[in-house]
Amino acid sequence: MIYNKTIKALATVAFLALSSTQLYAQDLLARQAPVDRKATKVDTFALKSVIEREQANSAVAQLYTEWNNKYAHRATELPDSFRIDLRHFCMPTPSRVITSNFGRRWGRMHKGLDIKVYTGDTIRAAFDGKVRMAQYDANGYGNYVVIRHPNGLETIYGHMSKHLVRENQNVKAGTPIGLGGNTGRSTGSHLHFETRLCGVALDPALMFDFRAQDVTADYYMFRKKASHAGRAVAQRNTKNTVVKEEIQEPEVADNNQASVKTTRENTTRNSKQRSREKQQRQQAKNYKVKKGDTLYSIAKRSGMTVDQLCKMNGIKKNSSIKPGQVLKHS
Prior knowledge:
Helix content: 25-40%
Number of helices: 5
Order of helices and strands: HEEEEEEEEEEEEEEEEEEEHHEHHE
Largest sheet: 8 strands, antiparallel
């Protein structure tokens, strides 16, 4: 009798042990399922990222047939349309002050934006890419850097006081590439910033909003269509991602077209304003700030008021000035 009870007890214990093992195993599987789904999701993102990079590199290879350190830019054939990825960007400078826009200026084409920076301010790469040029041009860009990016753009950073990168160096968006300055053909410390596609200059303001310190959209759609030059349209795709679409005419050497564009731009300014600006440019001189200088002392030395000095340099009365900074005065 006792023997039978013992057998039954052992059988019950064994049954419960097997049952708990099965349940425990099922719990393990249940807990593992979310991990597996998460791993699959990560793998999918990684694969998607690899595919996007390969597609971008393929697109850039189709746009550019050569890599050289001889020319800052040389126009080649533009595609009929091309989508430029503006995500994962970095603003080249935190400055929000634009001193000169893209377009015809003083009888010649200004092919970038001039952004106010001071000598020594850090200039950063706008996107990931590879430095194609880091050189000096006494009659133009001064110390400048050209970076080719996987999104198809080449960005140019001019008039810097110093290079912080070398040619053929890979950089990430936000990498310091130079210091602000006043080198080359420049009348004051600033950053000259260009965006080019196949060597052709595009207005950086179509992609970068320096005042807002942001890009204008996640993507910029370039379309070459001369009959609708300069018309920009903001659209949204099916994923609600903002796309900036520009129908733009490439740079041309045709004097008639340049004349028409000049006439259209000149209608925004009257003759008195142009005359006054020209007179100010002719009279303007540069002064390099020394230790101990103040806006009042510089204005007094130049025979100007502080208000006039500030207006000429686009600064405020309470703005701080640094030794080495270059100011315009009459």
